[in-house]
């Protein structure tokens, strides 16, 4: 039993946990800044950039994916400005048109190109690829200390681990700046803090987390990872530090419980097949948010800002 868990479930579960935490941390500040849907925008914009990067390089690697996502973001900004100026419509409508058009273009590229050999197709782009990220060289728990076995760990695990560690480090280093600029932008400017750069850095961090999580959990599920744990945590406490800890706890619970329910839930109910792990993680995240809305001690203060 232990050997099967290490081989088939340990790495997908760890990848899900790390992806959830990496998205939940910046998600806290995006929600407090009333920019929660930036996660939605990022998940739509990065898809065509990642696909184009693969078509140009022929590999699914971190650097090309990040460069492709950055290029797609630049194209999105240019298109939004062009639509606003030429069409004379309000910014929200311009962003909606641009994001959905780019996402549809990315899906179309996936449909028209041969990317199935590297698990980059419409199904994996939307719903992720967690179930296939198994550790074939593992035999039991001793494999965690075996260099030969560790060399066979799916590359998605070290990639998302590095990104998650980077997000945690950036959050700790810039904690004071993030807190001040989030709660009192005028005071932050008076102190000489680069408010614009802080906001841009937060968005870039969220984008890097989204790209790193893309290959494992899919572009759509990333939205739930950004919003649900952080929004649920907001209803559990009115303090920022405690909110961040709650969001990490909810992210871990959603990832672990979602993965277990995806594999065993249908069997417990008499079914024959498992369901999408990434989809179930998003479902559990939504259930946690619903429970926080119903029973959270600060549910009546939705929309109010947390205390610094």
Automatic annotation (TrEMBL):
InterPro entries: ABC_BtuC-like (IPR037294), ABC_TroCD (IPR001626). Keywords: Cell membrane, Membrane, Transmembrane, Transmembrane helix, Transport. The chain crosses the membrane at residues 6-25, 37-56, 160-178, 190-210, 216-232, 244-262, 274-295. The keyword Transmembrane helix applies. GO terms for cellular component: ATP-binding cassette (ABC) transporter complex. It is found in: Cell membrane. Belongs to the ABC-3 integral membrane protein family. This is Putative zinc/manganese/iron ABC transporter, permease protein.
């Amino acid at each position: 039993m232990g050997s099967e868990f290490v081989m088939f479930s340990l790495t997908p579960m760890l990848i899900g946990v790390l992806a959830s935490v990496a998205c939940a941390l910046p998600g806290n500040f995006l929600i407090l800044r009333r920019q929660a849907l930036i996660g939605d925008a990022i998940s739509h914009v990065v898809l065509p950039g990642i696909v184009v990067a693969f078509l140009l390089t022929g590999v699914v690697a971190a650097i090309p994916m990040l460069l492709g996502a950055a290029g797609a973001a630049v194209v999105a900004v240019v298109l939004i400005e062009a639509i606003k100026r030429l069409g004379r419509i309000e910014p929200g409508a311009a962003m909606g048109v641009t994001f959905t058009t780019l996402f549809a273009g990315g899906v179309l590229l996936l449909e028209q190109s041969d990317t199935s050999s590297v698990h980059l197709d419409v199904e994996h782009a939307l719903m992720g690829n967690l179930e296939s990220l198994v550790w074939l060289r593992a035999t039991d728990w001793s494999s965690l200390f075996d260099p030969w076995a560790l060399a066979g760990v799916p590359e998605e695990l070290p990639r998302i681990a590095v990104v998650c560690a980077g997000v945690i480090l950036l959050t700790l280093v810039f904690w004071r700046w993030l807190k001040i600029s989030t709660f009192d932008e005028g005071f932050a400017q008076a102190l000489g803090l680069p408010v614009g750069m802080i906001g841009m850095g937060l968005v870039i961090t969220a984008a890097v987390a989204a790209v790193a999580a893309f290959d494992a959990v899919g572009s759509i599920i990333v939205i739930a990872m950004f919003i649900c744990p952080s929004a649920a945590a907001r209803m559990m406490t009115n303090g920022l530090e405690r909110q961040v800890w709650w969001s990490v706890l909810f992210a871990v619970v959603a990832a672990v419980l979602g993965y277990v329910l995806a594999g065993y839930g249908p069997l417990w109910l008499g079914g024959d097949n498992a369901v999408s792990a990434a989809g179930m993680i998003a479902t559990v995240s939504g259930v946690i948010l619903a429970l926080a809305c119903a029973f959270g001690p600060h549910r009546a203060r939705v929309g109010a800002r947390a205390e610094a």
